[in-house]
Specification:
- α1 packs across α9 (271-284) and α10 (289-304) crosses α11.
- The chain has 11 helices and 14 strands.
- It is an alpha/beta fold.
- The model has no long low-confidence stretch (mean pLDDT 91).
- The protein has helices at 35-45, 60-71, 121-125, 136-139, 141-161, 178-190, 199-205, 223-232, 271-284, 289-304, 316-330; strands at residues 2-7, 11-16, 28-33, 50-53, 55-57, 80-82, 89-94, 100-105, 127-133, 164-168, 194-198, 237-241, 247-250, 255-258.
- The protein has a single domain (2-8, 36-56, 117-330), classed as UDP-N-acetylmuramoyl-L-alanine:D-glutamate ligase (3-Layer(aba) Sandwich).
- It has an 8-stranded mixed β-sheet with strand order 4-1-9-10-11-12-13-14, with helices on both faces.
Length: 331
């Protein structure tokens, strides 16, 4: 039995070894980069059993991604290797002021050719949570069909297999426009049991999100509107991520504001994925909403205070120590 199965594109990310524009870089380091694999790695670091499947090029970049994920404890046994399409790559630069810019080279990548018939359905059956993001359906029509096929299957077996569908819209406007994203992702929201959404995605998907809620002293957004809307769709577990303002988490009955940890930010990419991993770890362990949110906040803080999406994430001992300390502070 796996705690979580996920699928989507993971690329090789190249970053200058020093801050500044790539044009002036004399050397580049490489890492893996992919929202779904970030989740799988984050949970594996916390002792959970995770699996990731995708399509990679039969090339050195593909082999590198497989090695890295396996090394982090993620099962990759169902990954398909393509002879005809390459592994996607990207470049990331960080300015002296810690502003991050990302450049993608993923058109025609192996992952963008994923098809429904390549889904490992028996593998999905083994999982407690099927995690998807809104990045995958934006890659191609066949990827969109693959997402919906996976969710249709998960919904069909949910009663007997007790599988939960977790969705993060994770909108990438370099892949599609706001109208296309809203049309597709609104349907995916309705099919999900758990929704983990960032403030930028909420502004696109929920018209009233950017209107201040005077009753909520913690943030300028109308998170109550988003939570009520998702509850009406049948979503049972919700997190609205607000960046440096923290998050609001909710179930069917209660909601809690989660304060952020104060850390020095060096790289803000990957924070949302790290939050998701901590939050889902709490859910898998049957913890209350507030504690799940605190676990997510700790993971997110670790992500932004180190370079790379997953390299600085804590292991279980580190997370538990910080969680205990945080509980004492807020009691």
């Amino acid at each position: 039995m796996l705690d979580l199965v996920t699928f989507g594109e993971t690329m090789v990310a190249f970053t200058p070894t020093e801050k500044g524009s790539i044009r002036y870089a004399s050397s580049l380091g490489k890492r893996t980069a992919g929202a779904e694999s970030n989740i799988a790695i984050g949970l594996a670091k916390l002792g959970k059993k995770t699996g990731w499947f995708s399509k990679l090029g039969e090339d050195e970049f593909g082999e590198y991604i497989l090695r890295e994920l396996r090394g982090e404890g993620v099962d990759t046994s169902t990954v398909v290797m393509s002879k005809n399409n390459p592994t996607g790559i990207m470049f990331k630069q960080i300015s002296a002021g810690n502003e991050t810019s990302v450049f993608y080279y993923r058109k025609g990548s192996a992952a963008s050719t994923m098809m429904p018939e390549e889904l490992p359905l028996e593998y999905i059956k083994q999982s407690k949570i099927l995690y998807i993001s809104g990045i995958t359906p934006a890659l191609s029509n066949s990827c969109k069909e693959t997402i919906f096929a996976a969710l249709d299957f998960a919904k069909k077996i949910a009663k007997d297999n007790q599988i939960q569908i977790c969705f993060d819209p994770n909108i990438r406007l370099k892949l599609w426009n706001k109208e296309e994203a809203k049309e597709c992702l609104t349907v995916l929201l309705k099919m999900s049991n758990i929704v983990l959404i960032g403030d930028e995605e909420a502004e696109i998907l929920f018209d009233n999100f950017d209107k201040p809620n005077v009753s909520d002293k913690h943030n300028k957004y109308n998170t109550s509107y988003v939570i009520d809307h998702l509850r009406n769709l049948g979503v049972s577990k919700i997190a609205v991520k607000l960046g440096d303002k923290g998050a609001v988490v909710a179930d069917e009955n209660e909601s809690f504001h989660i304060s952020p940890l104060l850390v020095e930010v060096v790289d803000n990419i990957g924070a949302g994925d790290a939050f998701n991993a901590g939050f889902l770890c709490g859910l898998l362990e049957g913890r209350g909403m507030e504690e799940c949110g605190n676990m997510g906040a700790i993971m997110g803080a670790y992500a932004v205070s180190s370079y790379g999406d997953v390299e600085g994430l804590p292991n279980r001992i580190q997370l538990d120590a910080l969680l205990n300390k945080r509980e004492k502070i807020y009691r």
